[in-house]
Amino acid sequence: MESSETLFARALRRIPGGVNSPVRAFRSVGGAPFYVRSAHGATLVTVEGRELIDFVCTWGPAIHGHNHPLIRKAVAAALEDGTSFGTPNRFEVTMAELICRFVPSVEKVRMTNSGTEATMSAVRLARGYTRRDKIIKFSGCYHGHSDSLLIKAGSGALTHGHPDSAGIPASFARETVVLPFNDTASLDAAFAANPGQVAAVIVEPYPANVGLILPRPGFLAHLRVSCTANGALLIFDEVMTGFRLARGGVQEIEGIVPDLTALGKIIGGGLPVGAFGGRAQIMDLVAPLGPVYQAGTLSGNPLALAAGIAALELLEESMPYRGLDALGRRVRDALAGACKEKGLPAQVPQTGSMFSIFFTPRAVHDYAGALTGDAKLFARFFRGCLEAGVYLPPSAYETAFISTAHEGAAIDRACEVMASVIRSL
Ligand code: KE4
Predict the structure, then answer these.
(1) Is 211 found in the same domain as 311?
(2) Residues 98, 247 contacting (CB under 8 angstroms)
(3) How far apart are CA 398 and CA 395, in angstroms?
(4) Mean pLDDT in runs of 10 for the chain (425 residues)?
(5) Residue 27: left (phi > 0), alpha (psi -120 to 50), or beta?
(6) Whole-number pLDDT of residue 99
(7) How far does the centroid of ligand 1 lie from the alpha carbon of residue 262, in Å?
(8) Residue numbers of the domain that contains 354
(9) Alpha helices (runs of H) in 233-301, residue ranges in sequence order
(10) Same structural domain for residues 174 and 305?
């Protein structure tokens, strides 16, 4: 099989940056990306045959580990009947019922092909429902790459230094108000400065695209109260946290009921998917019922939904959340302990199966705080771990994911490696 090097050299000639998504390019951590031949459980196998313990989990979907036999079986069975029909199929009904059962605030749901489409459609629906134009988002939150939301965005946009992408008309960007996360005063001021104009507040309830940031007590509740008081909708972007941190996502953990929710990743079991949903009264404005248009050739694709249904049914059966949180705590303790031993200032936020590390003495509560982290030191940490067989997200502005397949040898080995790399920094 061709080496990662020759594959990447060929890719660079025909694909911008050689990758189909910028954060995979390793540009902020140095070196060139490796190519994966196969994946199973907590392991990636490169085209060179190297085995890596994977904490990217294809950016969230692989909560059951890679290539889970039940997901593979479900896709294979669906494949027997074809790949796409362009008509309704039975998987769409099961998936919609599962999502509504898992996430009670969702009374109706529309499938899309990505998280970007999900948040973009939710924003359009909020504007159509309220007949207002402005959207409030928070710096560092990443909601995919639609024009309204690529303003002070996190993830790859921040990683590569373009949190405000080129190509977005100023007239458009003006409709998006960007505030610091965890700052209730700026939220109140933004509503006061735009009376009757804010269609929605969209938020990653636990921002994870700038490293992991947890809300201060009461912040999410304040969002809820303020949106209701100002006639704006509250959109929870749970593309990443949905089904990962609890059956019902962060809204279940925090007891907050958003008006709309964006979903993705896990509900596709590793195949392309997204979804947006909420109260029927709002969702009934979506075409063909109402005037808010939204569509997709492959929305509700039978293979993607067969995979997603298998993933959700496995979650419902195994309810792995306590176990995943225990694994997360082990990683957090190993990292924080090694940093303390070394006298290296660091913050290691962790919730459930999500964690990140900021090399900074300051507690990180927002985008500005995240930027105080030493990204160069993170790059050295990343490379040291990779050399020792542990693959973390290739950016200081991402969050790592743990799967149920990490239990046992993988997590033991990974904690050892990460702690020893910290000690060597
Ligand atoms: P997609 O369009 O990439 O399916 O979803 C966009 C999206 C929306 N909302 C949240 C909270 C997200 O985290 C994402 C995408 N996450 C990034 C990883 N941080 C995807 C990785 C990538 O861009 O390659």
Answers:
(1) yes
(2) no
(3) 6
(4) 96 98 95 97 98 98 98 98 98 98 98 98 98 97 95 85 86 94 98 98 98 98 98 98 98 98 98 98 98 98 98 97 98 98 98 98 97 97 98 97 98 98 97
(5) alpha
(6) 98
(7) 11
(8) 4-63+320-424
(9) 249-254, 280-283
(10) yes
Question: Residue 395 is encoded by which pair of tokens?
Answer: 């950016």
Domain total for the chain?
2
Beta bridge mates, 5: none
Q: Judge if the upstream peptide bond of residue 288 is cis by omega within 30 degrees of 0.
A: yes
Q: Does residue 115 line the site of ligand 1, with CB under 6 A? A: yes
The whole-chain average pLDDT of the chain stands at 97
Span 292-306, pLDDT tens digits? 999 999 999 999 999
Is the CB of 207 within 6 Å of ligand 1? no
The C-alpha atoms of residue 180 and residue 128 are separated, in whole angstroms, by: 26
Counting ligand 1 atoms within 8 A of each CB, the residue from 142, 250, 298, 399 with the most, and so the one to mutate, is 142
Enter the tokens of residue 89. 């199929």
**323 CA to centre of ligand 1 in angstroms:** 25
- Under 8 Å between Cβ of 227 and 233: yes
Catalytic residues: 142, 237, 265
Pairing of strands 274-278, 260-264: antiparallel
Which residue bears the tokens 């074809």?
A: 82
Give the HSE-up count for residue 348: Cα atoms under 13 Å, Cβ half-sphere. Answer: 20
CATH code assigned at 354: 3.90.1150.10
Kindly give the distance from the C-alpha atom of residue 310 to the centroid of ligand 1, in angstroms, as a whole number.
Answer: 22
Residue of 137, 141, 143, 267 to test ligand 1 pocket, by largest number of atoms within 8 Å of CB? 143
Radius of gyration of the chain measured on its C-alpha atoms? 21
Whether 241 and 137 map to the same domain: the answer is: yes
Q: How far apart are CA 198 and CA 231, in angstroms?
A: 8
Count, residues in the chain = 425
With a threshold of 0.70, does the pTM exceed it?
Answer: yes
Please tell me the predicted confidence (pLDDT) of residue 164. Answer: 85
